[in-house]
Amino acid sequence: MARNEKNGLWSGLLPTAAILFGLLAVWGGTVLASTYVVYIPMDSTIYRELDELNGLGYLDTYMDEIRPIARVEGARLTLEAAQNLNESGKHDPLAEKLIATLRLQLKEEIGWLENNAEDKQPTMIHPLERAEVQYIYSAGPKRYWETGPSADLPGGPGGINAKEATPLLPNNDGLPTGAGSNEIVRASGWAGLGGFLTGDAEGAVSGPFTRSLAGENRLNLLDGEIVASLGNFALSFGQEEQWWGVGYFGAMPISTNIPPLPAIRLSTIHPTYLPWIFRYLGPFRFQVFFSQLSYQPEPYVSRPWFDGEIFSFKPLPYLEFGIFHQIDFGGRYNDNYTTAGFLLRAFGIPGVHPAGADSHSRAGLWVKFYLPFLRNAELYQGILAEDKLLGFLPFVRVSYQGGFYIPRLTEDGLTDLRFEYIILQSAYSVYGSGLALVYQDTLIGYPLGPNASEIDFQVGRWFNLQYKTDVDLFWTTQAPGYGDHQFYSLEYYPYGFAAEYSGGLAIDLWRMAEAIPGLGGTLGTLRIRAAFEYARNLNFAQGATSVRGLLLLSGSFRPMYDSFAWR
After folding, report:
1. Is the pLDDT assigned to residue 158 strictly greater than 80?
2. Are 266 and 21 spatial neighbours (Cβ–Cβ below 8 Å)?
3. CA 66 to CA 71: how far, in whole Å?
4. 3-state class of 220 per DSSP?
5. C-alpha to C-alpha distance for 376 and 369, rounded to whole angstroms
């Protein structure tokens, strides 16, 4: 599918969004509690710095299973960490450095909170929030999943057609790259109107400088959205990054492995409490969205609807849990339902779906334990189940993801250890009737694909309280035969039967944001990634061996100036 087809996705969402934002604009003058919601890009070092503070034990209400978060929420967490560090009475050089760095990056929003002005902001514009330059050298073949047409096999094995954007660099917003050298430039900015309405955008130019990639656009809009805040709720419309789940190397429900998805979303800005006895569930966050997926190859369904909900709770300082649900349905050749049928499917209510009106739902939950007595260790486990025919919370075709993280492998917190595993069921994201969870030719969830497993073992170490190096050893397997085996047929399966095995090493170096000399206080960050992988039977080609490699050099820049305001 050519990427220019994605512009058609807006047609189904725009009328609904226009009505919602029109009502908010009329009501905006009466909104007493509102602020500017600008989401932090998922590749920002702010998330890494917050993760480190959370691991060190200085954050009480950081629930990172729903991302991105707003800059003003990042500012609140920074102040929470500073208060907890002060109350602990400890001298913790790494935590002090992290908090100081976050204060620089979130200076304006921290000022709002410290001056009790979060909800009293004038109209303003911040034309350049951040710019980023990446160089990527990629070597070796890409993984791809291609089951071919299966419309005559209802619920049949086929229905997934996708490929990697860049080998060994998942979760990069699906930015397309080719073999050899690639250059990427990203830039973002935002503006706020009336104290409650925000518009922000991030664009990217990507791909090899010397040639174009067939079927790919060199210029891509990443984030581009309008956000209205109403109290502690943010209603947004546009393209926005999304990450749901507990995984570190990838997430099962939805991740930044895909290009940002156009959708209408409703989210909490800061953690809050439910009323009545449900208050005992502790701080909680949620997000709901309604979207539309991209075209699928004929004769698949084109542009099915896609929506979901996620809720995260922290009832105890050492316990966190959450649930989520997603469903995709409808689209061309699959819309044999009434308005009531549309609503039943959109809310995932069980029912008998006649031919030409199929739906595909999946749901799951996770739990995370914090163990302060064991070097602040975190132990987490998540499951994701996909339905066969119907049901709101199906418990068939289950995939698993879990692991542990020890932030203070050494007592000073400068060395950490992480182990993570994932087992993806053969039907993970796969479904007949054109309802596979794929967007813009890219897997929506975990980047490894169905009928696969992965183990990661990573050690990290800080140097000079400024640089951190992570060394990751990984092993993956992937078997042919994904899909529903009762409909399995060689006629619709293009591969041989050799299982794929691979192992490799990835080294990541990143630097906290700091002022660049001679640039008026401009903050700069640095990221370097080098990765190598050896694979047997890649893409199930029996007897074939493949060597894949990656080199990433990335630097971002944030000018240090206050937003231009009109009072």
Report:
1. no
2. no
3. 14
4. strand
5. 10
Counting every residue, how long is the chain?
567
Structure confidence at residue 392 (pLDDT)? 46
Q: What is the pLDDT of residues 169-194, one digit of tens each?
A: 999 999 989 999 999 999 999 999 99
Q: What are phi and psi of 29, to 5 degrees?
A: -65, -20
Rounded to an integer, what is the distance from CA 26 to the centroid of its chain? Answer: 33
Contact 361, 394 (CB under 8 A): yes
Asked if 539 contacts 113 with a C-beta cutoff of 8 angstroms, the reply is no
The answer to whether 169 touches 550, Cβ cutoff 8 Å, is yes
Do 172 and 444 contact (CB within 8 A), yes or no?
no
| Residue 227 in this model has a pLDDT that exceeds 60 | yes
CA 396 to chain centre: 25
Grouping H, G, I as helix, E, B as strand and the rest as coil, residue 95 is helix
Torsion of CA 169, 171, 176, 179, to 10 degrees: 10
What sign does the dihedral 534-537-538-541 (CA atoms) show? positive
Whether domain 3-566 has CATH 2.40.160.130: the reply is yes
- Long-range contact pairs involving 368-373 (C-beta distance under 8 Å, separation at least 24): 368/246, 368/319, 368/320, 368/321, 369/318, 369/319, 369/320, 370/317, 370/318, 370/319, 370/320, 371/318, 372/57, 372/318
3 state SS for 281-345 = HCCEEEEEEEEECCCCCCCCCCCCEEEEEEEEEEEECCEEEEEEEEEEECCCCCCCCCHHHHHHH
Q: If DSSP codes are grouped into helix, strand and coil, which group holds residue 58?
A: coil
Q: Which pTM was predicted?
A: 0.90
* Average pLDDT in the chain: 87
Provide the residue type at 52 as one letter: E
Could you give phi then psi for residue 14, rounded to 5 degrees? -60, -45
Q: What DSSP character marks residue 251?
A: -
Can you list the alpha helix ranges (DSSP code H) found in 157-299?
none
pLDDT in tens, 531-544: 999 999 998 888 88
**383-399 b/e (C-beta count within 10 Å ≥ 16 → b):** bbbbbeeebeebeebbb
- List C-alpha distances in Å: 558 to 24, 90, 205: 32, 31, 18
Amino acid code (one letter) for 176 = P
Q: By the 8 A CB rule, do 389 and 350 touch?
A: no
Provide the residue ranges of all domains of the chain, joining segments of one domain with +.
Answer: 3-566
Name the burial class of residue 19, with classes exposed (0-12), middle (13-18) and buried (19+) by CB atoms within 10 angstroms of its CB: exposed
**Residues 286, 268: contact at Cβ < 8 Å?**
yes
Handedness of CA 482, 486, 490, 492 (dihedral sign): negative
Question: In this structure, which amino acid lies at residue 61?
Answer: T
Strand, helix or coil at 99? helix
- Encode pLDDT of 429-482 as tens digits: 888 777 889 998 899 999 999 999 999 999 999 999 999 999 999 999 998 776
Burial class, 214, CB count within 10 angstroms (exposed 0-12 / middle 13-18 / buried 19+)? exposed
- Vertex 561: Cα angle to 203 and 103 (nearest 5): 95
